[in-house]
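REVIEWER CHECKLIST
Item 1: Sequence provided? yes
Item 2: Single chain? yes
Item 3: Sequence as submitted:
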Amino acid sequence: MRIFVTGVCGQLGHDVVNNAVSRGHEVTGSDIQTVYSGVADGSAVTAAPYVQLDITDKDAVNSVISEIRPDAIVHCAAWTAVDLAEDDENRVKVDKINHLGTQYIAEAAKSINCKMLYLSTDYVFDGKGVRPWQPDDKCYAPLNIYGQSKLDGELAVSSTLDKYFIVRIAWVFGLNGKNFIKTMINAGKTHDSVRVVNDQIGTPTYTLDLSRLLVDMIETDKYGYYHATNEGGYISWYDFCVEFYKQYGLDTKVIPVTTAEYGLSKAARPVNSRLDKSKLVEAGFKPLPDWKDAVRRYLKEAEL
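Item 4: Structure as written out by the authors:
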């Protein structure tokens, strides 16, 4: 299969390329940088063909995709700086990347009859209640600019294509790029204590594990909406931090606080980020491993 992956300089795109190449697929990666810039780990992503692409340039998107003519596109590229998205000077840019860029890719995919997998987020929901969100829930009400832009991207894909996967994920961590684990371990090395919110509930997602599932998906025609995080139950950011500090060997004190007490975020965060993943099993896909096991494997690989 010929696969085109966007956002390969980020956490997930990096791992998707590696996984797809390991299975014998013909993979081309892209990002906005002139050349690949990410973890130089000697893996497939550093050797796979790379194309510079600004997804907000419609003509460039059409040109690249029509030339490569992939059988499947895995669209990982996105604006993910949630708080910066709230700044007035960034709002148009966020919409161009997460909404219009996705629209352009979906239209290009349709023009060559190509399937598309779009990565979305728990932030498309309003975060109310305690019931886990189902993949086909339609009660959207994003709390922030980032969430709205990702929802608009979802709607661009679903209204343009028939052959699509929309996969919502949450609390992402991987080797290539910034994430909560890296940030908090660095903080823990220089502070006696850290404050972490304990009233936002969800489940982490290790990009290495997720990449396997995404390639599993595009090898099928089981289209639709899915939720995908690691297994192991629903936890808070506080629980998450306590666990990876323990595994890493840090004795820094973790102080649980409410979102209101934390008070440092520009963007409102959903309190309920529980994503129901049972549809994966119903469709015959293998779930991701337990998140604690994922943390153990990640810490072993990451240079922190």
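Item 5: Key structural point noted by reviewer: The two ends are 36 Å apart (CA to CA).
Item 6: Recommendation: ____
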